[in-house]
Amino acid sequence: MPDSMTQLVSAGPPGTKRNLVVLGDGFAAGNQDAYNQKVQDLVINGLFHQDLFYEDQQAFNIYRVNLISTDSGMSQRVYDSNDNIVSTTLKNTALGYMYNGSWSHCWLEDGTNTESLLQNALNTWVPDYTFVLVLLNETGWGGCGGGGRLVVTLAGDWSVIAHESGHGMGGLADEYCVQGAWPGGEPGQVDATTNSDRNTLKWGNFINPSTPVPTGVAPAGTSGSCTGYNQGTKPSWWDDNQDVGLFEGGSTYSTGVYRPLINCRMNSNRPPYCPVCYTQMRRVLDPYTDHTFLNCYAGDFNGDGKSDLLIHNDNSILLYRSNGSQLDTVFSAVAIVPGSWQFSTHDQFYIGDFNGDGKDEVVVYNSVDWVIPYLGLLADDGNNGLDLIARYDGSMPGWQFNKTDQFYVADFNGDGKQDLFVFNGSDWSIPYLGLLASSGWGFSLVQRYDSTLPGWQMTPGDQHFIGDFNGDGKADLYLFNGSNWSIAYLGLLQSNGSGLSMATRYDGAVPGWQMRTNDAHYVADINGDGKADLFVYNYQDWSTQYLGRMISEGTALAADWAASWVGEWHLGAVDQFAPCDYEGVSGKPDLFVHNHDWFGMISAGSSIGLQKIYYRWIHNYRYGRNW
Amino acid sequence: MANETPPNKGEQVKGGPPIVENAQLPRMGTQAMPPKLINGAVRHMTVGAQPVQGSNLMAPVPKDQTQQQGAGGKPTYPAQERKTMEQPAPGQGYIRLHVRVTNGQLSVIGAQAVAGPLVQNQSLHHDYAYEVTVGANRVAVESFPNPAEWRSYPNPHGVQGQEGHHITHAASYDLTVRIPRQALSLAQLPQMQIALYQVSENAQHKPLGTQVLNTQFSQQVKEVARLNGLRIEQLAAPVQESLRKALQ
User: Fold this and answer.
1) Over the stretch B92-103, which tens digit does the pLDDT of each residue have?
2) Backbone angles phi, psi at A291, to 5 degrees
3) B87 touches chain A (CB under 8 A)
4) In whole angstroms, how far apart are CA A120 and each of A72, A274, A354?
5) Which residues of A are less than 8 Å from B10 in CB distance?
């Protein structure tokens, strides 16, 4: 059996990512399955299924290198209490590490040729490496890390690696206390300090003003233990892992130095990183994660009535669950989901309840990155994630995919399952509009319009917006064109279940709103009357930004508008909007607003107001924020 | 104010007049805009099909295209076939130098070319950093935790004195230095400098300017070691060969 390499996570080119390489030593040919399973358990299902590492998978390429050792198990070295070598038993292994079982000898050590063997393996099997994890086929306890490397035995689990990664990736200090008084000056790490002045404290921005500083003071004579909350009564709402204060004891010392949290991962491995350490880790990984908020999609993926959020970046997606007022990560996938769908840069996402089960599914279309266009239907995997249940490669009956196909989600037949409109105005000699009905497990064409719709001449610049504007339970079509004619047009085409007819067409203006070329429309039932209305946003054609509302009266519209600012959010050219209902309150629609770096949650019912704002990443700090 | 739109020039006043940001643009009115000319003529929308023309038409709609549920549970599909990647242009990619630090001396002991783009740090987030310069120009910078420090796992069996990490500092340790390919040539190697710094907390998390680190941060960075120019002929033969190949 020759040596080999398998890339377990492919997030992007090596120079744009952090590259984690896992190698095994002491695994003979017959041990390779066990090695592969251990890597899976420790790294993929272990470390990278935990909080920050799960959220930031996109920052990592992960390579597994299978090195075939001649012998199974590790060379052994034994020291006596005076550090003299008592015995050495050598085995012929791929990297030549020796296990010594001695804390003061880092539990293990290099053999004569280990460094050159390791360098040779790295240069042979991976294009670049940032972090190297070596797994020894040894059941005794031990692990040794430094210089971007971590060498471990089979005895530890993911939590120890997560703690060590805090040192190796984030440069974090330990937050446990096993010694006496701190002997030095101000430590350089973000999670340790000798400073007890709230005004200049390095993590002061994360401390609630009602929290005393210092929060925990070591009693005289303390040695070998960390101090908890003892300055006043600990509030009932206090979370030892997420609420920040100033606690004496840290950097392995018990007095004279402080840590930010009672119990962070840098204290006891298993808890998540505290806000201070989490922020440092995300800062360090942020250039390699390269997440933006440019591609955001609202959908109720668990059927609780509150809109959740799907974010697409390059070849990854993240799902965030809404609890009514904030978002929390529930799913992260890089490159592929079971079924299979391979995520890629030009994926287009369409959200809807296509099988009528009360939870939203995801249609994803890509006509750019592959040799033929693909359309996939992704559904709940039963564990907060998604997998593929149907895929069309190149075409579906009656509709041939093409580069600029545009899809729109709509239950146009009122059967409780969302369907699709599909439009192509530029890849063929004439424009086409198709109505694709969902069966719950796929789609079929029920009507195709070639060149014209009733009362409307189709042109490439047509923009389509879906909503049941007459409240009959069947999704209708708002059709806008501001560029192909001398004036702008807005048409209201109503669905009878299998076709469309023109209800009203506005030429140039809707009462209360003068239509312009760059009007951008978003559908929502703004007044909660069961009829779909339109938000309309225009930042280009007027002297200031306008955010307007067009309220449907069945087959007609009435408009009003506001301008420039929504709370802390200054409406601007870069903003995109996603109508949603993250509060889960019937008749009270909301908006997600987002641009490259910022994400906002706008409550938009009777008035428009900003409820939450995030910068660069979504994380709910108990107090303070990351800008 | 935090998001990307430039700040407003004045305070918003409830009930006040709208702020005019560009007086050249008209206000929103209540009447329809006058028609604009397209190719010199007014083109109003007309109802009725355009004549079907051209040869690039979709196939006719088939009579029976009812979607059938697949038997036997969820289907599986083969991997999607990605388009052939475009070859990177000459000069793209980066050089990875394997640098050893021993007794304050830097030496290059390995070199490889890596295809594809390189993300460069925009600020320092750790207490050590290298900086590569050619002449007065910085061409690469990266920060990292103390590269000399090694930690053993704590002893889980409660042995007194072994509850924490056993920390040692290696006398010799390695760095990986990454340099964009287009920023370096064989001829520039004698002018290339690699500096290893210890970075104080006051220099961390701040945007990097165009100045070299010891100018921008002055006393906040402390030089640990420096390589003043690289003479390729003094490298080991395999390293010479791989570096020449990488920089060709």
Assistant:
1) 799 999 999 998
2) -75, 145
3) no
4) 21, 38, 52
5) none
A287's CB contacts (< 8 A; 6+ apart) are: B119, B121, B122
- Of A427, A444, A541, nearest to B66 by CB-CB distance is A444
DSSP3 helix / strand / coil % (chain A, rounded to 5): 10, 40, 50
Quick one: closest CA in A to B3, which residue?
A598
The tens digit of pLDDT for each residue in A437-480 reads 999 989 999 999 988 899 888 888 899 999 999 999 999 999 99
Per-residue pLDDT reduced to its tens digit, A223-245: 889 999 999 999 999 999 999 99
Q: Backbone phi, then psi, for A23, in 5-degree steps?
A: -125, 150
Q: Give how far B135 is from chain A: nearest CA, Å.
A: 24
What's the gap in Å between the CA of A110 and the closest CA on chain B? Answer: 13
Tell me the two tokens of residue A302. Answer: 């668990």
Rounded CA gap, A171 and A251, in Å?
12
Quote the pTM value.
Answer: 0.82
- Are A95 and B147 in contact by the 8 Å Cβ rule? The answer is no
Interface test with A, best of B69, B165, B200, B206 (most A CBs within 10 A): B165
Q: How far is Cα A623 from Cα B12, in angstroms, rounded to an integer? A: 29
Q: Does B86 touch chain A (CB under 8 A)?
A: no
Dump strand ranges (E) for A75-233: 75-79, 85-89, 98-99, 108-109, 131-136, 143-146, 149-152, 177-181
- Chain B residues close to A565, C-beta within 8 Å: 8, 12
Is A508 close to B32, i.e. CB distance below 8 A?
Answer: yes
With a CB cutoff of 8 Å and minimum separation 6, the contacts of A120 are none
Structure tokens at A149: 């490397």
- Rounded to a whole number of angstroms, the distance from the CA of A236 to the nearest CA of chain B is 32
Residues A273/A281, Cβ–Cβ less than 8 Å: yes
* Residue B25 touches chain A, beta carbons under 8 Å: yes
Across chain B, how many H-helices and E-strands are there?
2, 9
Q: How many CA atoms lie within 13 A of A330 on its CB side?
A: 21
Please count the residues of chain A: 627
Question: DSSP 3-state assignment of A40?
Answer: helix
**Which CA distances in Å does A288 have to A4, A17, A18, A488?**
26, 5, 7, 44
Instruction: Establish if B122 touches chain A: CB-CB under 8 angstroms.
Output: yes
Q: Is A444–B96 a contact, with Cβ atoms under 8 angstroms apart?
A: no
